[in-house]
Structure formats: structure tokens, C-alpha cells
Amino acid sequence: MMELATPDTVKWLLADRAYAVIAVAMATCTIYDHITTLDEEIELVWKRRKWTLVQIFFFINRYTGGGLQIYTAFVLVRHIAFNTEESCNLLGILQGYLATLVAAAMQGIMVYRVSSMYNHERNVIITLVVAFAAEIAALLVMLVIATDVSASFPDPAPGVHLCKQDNMPSWSWSNWLPIALFEAFILVLSLSLAIKYYRSTKHDSRAMNSFRNSLGYILFRDSITFPLM
Fold it and tell me: Which domain of life is it from (predicted)?
């Protein structure tokens, strides 16, 4: 006689499939974005005569992140379709290291933007680089330790085998703490300069209107909203 699935089993099976569907949706959006903006990318990025570190960060962010999303969707769909956990451990490891690489590239661009807002002051550059290096070092140490720790995530319900990394200690979620702290630091630097500039121009409508149409305004706006994205 066939045993009926428990409510918990059904719930987790649906959640497992929903996760795969979300991954496919994200990969689809990524591919669509790449196709629809490729002409602008070629014109504004590829055709630049002199390559900079910011361009390298851009390509890491755009193509490593996109490739990881597509591979994630592939592994999760195969996991659902064939009830296999093949490549799940590799996916977990890649997600950890490549997501760190993508985050570092995004934040590297923000470091340059904030440095530009401060006219590349030496003290600001040193502070940003030290904070950035400390964040990346902390993330890498946590990833290495997590990979070596023997702590598997148990199956949440009978008959449910999630696509997961073999070693997943309970404190893995804390990997986001260094990222959150660094982005909070970026936000504070951006806000402090924005407030300072606002106070100096709030009684000068001409200067304020001119600022809103300037590159500086774009840097302020994007640097402040970036940590909230």
C-alpha cells in the first residue's frame, strides 16, 4: 500500500519546486537584460580605448553573476526533473565563492564612485580600500571554514531531499554580516557628504538646480540607494 505524503512533505516539495521556478525566472530576466542592452554595452564599454579597473569590475559583475544564475537554474531544474542531487554540492560552493566575487565587483565600483565624490582624497581612498579588503578577507575566511566544517543540513521532511551543499553549518547566514557592514559604511559616507553639500546650498536655488543636473547628483543618488538595493 502506498504511503501518503505528510503535509510537511508536500509543503517542502512545493517550496523546492518554487525555488527552482524562481531561479529560472531570474535566469530568464538576466538573459533578457543582456540581450536588450548588449548594443549599449558594446558602445559604452567595449569600445573604450583605455580599459580601467572599473570596466573589469563591470564585466565580473555582469557575466559572472549572470552565468551563476543560469547555472543555478540548470542544476535546480535537473534536481526537480530527475530527482537527483548531482552537482548540488558544487553549486553551493560556487554560489558562495562566485557570489562573493560578484559582490566584491559591485562594491569595487561603489568604492570608486564614493572616492570620486570626495575628489579622490588620499585619506578617503585609504579608508575605503582598508574597509573593502577587510570585508573580502572576512568573507573568504568564513567560506573556507564553512567548507571544511562537517555539518550537513538535515532533510526537512520525509522524502524531501533539497538541493544543498554537503557542508552547511548553522552560522552560514552570517556571511552577509561583513557585506551589510561595508554597505552601511558606504551609505554613511555618501549621506554625510550629501548632507554637508545640502546645507551649503539650501539657500542658493540656482546652485541646487545646477547640482540636480550634474554628475555629482547622480553619484550621490546612486551611492545612497545602492545599499538599499
Answer: Eukaryota
**Residue 65 and residue 102 in contact, taking contact as beta carbons nearer than 8 Å:** yes
What are 65-83's pLDDT values in tens digits? 899 999 999 999 998 888 7
C-alpha cell, 56: 573589469
DSSP 131-159: HHHHHHHHHHHHHHHHHHS--PPPPSSTT
Please list, residue by residue across 170-209, b when 16 or more beta carbons sit within 10 angstroms of its beta carbon and e when fewer do: eebeebeebbeebbebbbebbeebbeebeeeeeeeeeeee
CA distance 76 to 105: 26
Query: CB count, 10 Å around CB of 88?
Result: 19
In tens, the pLDDT along 135-176 reads: 999 999 988 888 777 666 777 777 777 888 777 777 777 888
